[in-house]
Amino acid sequence: MTETTGSTATPESGNPEGADGVDATPDGDEKTLSRRDRKRARKGEGGDRKSGKRAKKGLFARIAVFYRQIIAELRKVVWPSRNELIQYTTVVVVFVVTIMLVVYGMDTAFAKLSLWIFG
Protein backbone atom coordinates (compact mmCIF):
# COMPACT_ATOMS: atom_id res chain seq x y z
CA MET A 1 0.00 0.00 0.00
CA THR A 2 1.37 3.41 -0.85
CA GLU A 3 1.54 6.21 1.65
CA THR A 4 -0.21 9.44 0.83
CA THR A 5 1.04 12.90 1.66
CA GLY A 6 -2.33 14.36 2.67
CA SER A 7 -3.12 16.78 5.43
CA THR A 8 -2.68 14.11 8.11
CA ALA A 9 0.77 12.97 7.00
CA THR A 10 3.62 14.01 9.26
CA PRO A 11 7.39 13.98 8.74
CA GLU A 12 7.58 11.03 11.13
CA SER A 13 5.23 9.01 8.93
CA GLY A 14 7.30 9.43 5.80
CA ASN A 15 6.09 12.76 4.45
CA PRO A 16 8.96 14.06 2.29
CA GLU A 17 10.62 17.17 3.61
CA GLY A 18 8.97 20.28 2.23
CA ALA A 19 5.95 18.36 0.86
CA ASP A 20 3.64 19.61 3.60
CA GLY A 21 3.69 23.13 2.18
CA VAL A 22 5.56 24.71 5.10
CA ASP A 23 8.18 27.29 4.18
CA ALA A 24 11.20 28.18 6.22
CA THR A 25 10.66 29.85 9.57
CA PRO A 26 10.27 33.65 9.57
CA ASP A 27 13.67 34.21 11.15
CA GLY A 28 15.47 32.65 8.19
CA ASP A 29 16.17 29.10 9.41
CA GLU A 30 15.94 26.42 6.75
CA LYS A 31 14.26 24.06 9.20
CA THR A 32 10.52 23.39 8.67
CA LEU A 33 8.27 23.40 11.70
CA SER A 34 5.47 21.00 12.43
CA ARG A 35 1.98 22.33 13.02
CA ARG A 36 2.41 21.87 16.77
CA ASP A 37 5.70 23.79 16.78
CA ARG A 38 4.21 26.63 14.69
CA LYS A 39 1.27 26.85 17.10
CA ARG A 40 3.59 26.98 20.09
CA ALA A 41 5.70 29.67 18.41
CA ARG A 42 2.61 31.78 17.63
CA LYS A 43 1.38 31.37 21.19
CA GLY A 44 4.75 32.45 22.55
CA GLU A 45 4.89 35.50 20.29
CA GLY A 46 1.28 36.66 20.50
CA GLY A 47 0.52 36.00 24.14
CA ASP A 48 -3.18 36.67 24.65
CA ARG A 49 -3.97 37.26 20.99
CA LYS A 50 -7.41 35.93 20.09
CA SER A 51 -8.49 35.42 16.51
CA GLY A 52 -12.04 36.02 15.28
CA LYS A 53 -14.04 32.78 15.41
CA ARG A 54 -11.57 31.01 17.65
CA ALA A 55 -11.84 33.57 20.44
CA LYS A 56 -13.04 32.06 23.69
CA LYS A 57 -16.61 33.00 24.43
CA GLY A 58 -18.31 33.23 27.79
CA LEU A 59 -20.42 30.44 29.22
CA PHE A 60 -23.77 32.04 28.41
CA ALA A 61 -22.66 32.91 24.87
CA ARG A 62 -21.67 29.30 24.25
CA ILE A 63 -25.00 28.06 25.65
CA ALA A 64 -26.86 30.52 23.40
CA VAL A 65 -24.91 29.34 20.35
CA PHE A 66 -25.64 25.73 21.29
CA TYR A 67 -29.40 26.34 21.48
CA ARG A 68 -29.38 28.32 18.22
CA GLN A 69 -27.70 25.36 16.55
CA ILE A 70 -30.32 23.01 18.01
CA ILE A 71 -33.14 25.16 16.61
CA ALA A 72 -31.42 25.35 13.21
CA GLU A 73 -31.08 21.54 13.08
CA LEU A 74 -34.70 21.00 14.14
CA ARG A 75 -35.84 23.24 11.28
CA LYS A 76 -34.05 20.91 8.84
CA VAL A 77 -35.96 17.85 10.09
CA VAL A 78 -38.65 16.49 7.79
CA TRP A 79 -41.46 15.71 10.21
CA PRO A 80 -43.83 12.84 9.33
CA SER A 81 -47.46 13.56 8.60
CA ARG A 82 -50.16 12.26 10.93
CA ASN A 83 -50.92 9.31 8.62
CA GLU A 84 -47.22 8.38 8.36
CA LEU A 85 -46.88 8.62 12.15
CA ILE A 86 -49.83 6.28 12.70
CA GLN A 87 -48.47 3.86 10.10
CA TYR A 88 -44.96 3.81 11.63
CA THR A 89 -46.36 3.38 15.15
CA THR A 90 -48.54 0.46 14.00
CA VAL A 91 -45.57 -1.25 12.36
CA VAL A 92 -43.49 -0.91 15.52
CA VAL A 93 -46.26 -2.19 17.82
CA VAL A 94 -46.98 -5.19 15.56
CA PHE A 95 -43.27 -6.03 15.38
CA VAL A 96 -42.85 -5.83 19.17
CA VAL A 97 -45.93 -8.02 19.80
CA THR A 98 -44.66 -10.57 17.25
CA ILE A 99 -41.24 -10.77 18.90
CA MET A 100 -42.92 -11.06 22.33
CA LEU A 101 -44.98 -14.04 21.08
CA VAL A 102 -41.88 -15.71 19.60
CA VAL A 103 -39.95 -15.30 22.87
CA TYR A 104 -42.94 -16.51 24.89
CA GLY A 105 -43.30 -19.57 22.67
CA MET A 106 -39.60 -20.43 22.91
CA ASP A 107 -39.63 -19.92 26.69
CA THR A 108 -42.66 -22.19 27.10
CA ALA A 109 -41.12 -24.83 24.82
CA PHE A 110 -37.80 -24.82 26.70
CA ALA A 111 -39.60 -24.96 30.05
CA LYS A 112 -41.63 -28.02 28.98
CA LEU A 113 -38.54 -29.62 27.43
CA SER A 114 -36.51 -29.17 30.62
CA LEU A 115 -39.42 -30.47 32.72
CA TRP A 116 -39.66 -33.53 30.45
CA ILE A 117 -35.86 -34.16 30.56
CA PHE A 118 -35.20 -33.51 34.26
CA GLY A 119 -38.66 -34.54 35.47
Report what the structure shows:
This protein is mainly α and 119 residues long. The protein has a domain of 40 residues. Helices cover 56% and strands 0% of the residues. The chain is built from three helices and no strands. The longest helix has 37 residues. It is found in: Cell membrane; Membrane. Belongs to the SecE/SEC61-gamma family. Its main location: membrane. InterPro entries: SecE_bac (IPR005807), SecE_sf (IPR038379), Translocase_SecE/Sec61-g (IPR001901).
Topology:
Layout lengths: L34 H12 L12 H18 L5 H37 L1
What sequence of helices (H) and strands (E) makes up the elements? HHH
Strand tally: 0
Percent helix range: 55-70%
Distance separating the two termini: 63 Å
Uncertain residue ranges: none
- Kindly state the mean pLDDT as a whole number? 79
Largest sheet descriptor: none
Number of helices: 3
Shape: elongated
Using only CA atoms, what is the Rg? 31 Å
- Strand percentage lies at under 5%
Give the class from helix and strand content and strand pairing.
mainly alpha
What's the quick description here?
This protein is mainly alpha-helical. It is built from three helices and no strands. The chain is elongated and about 85 Å long.
Keyphrases for this structure?
119 residues; mainly alpha; 3 helices; transmembrane; translocation; transport; protein transport
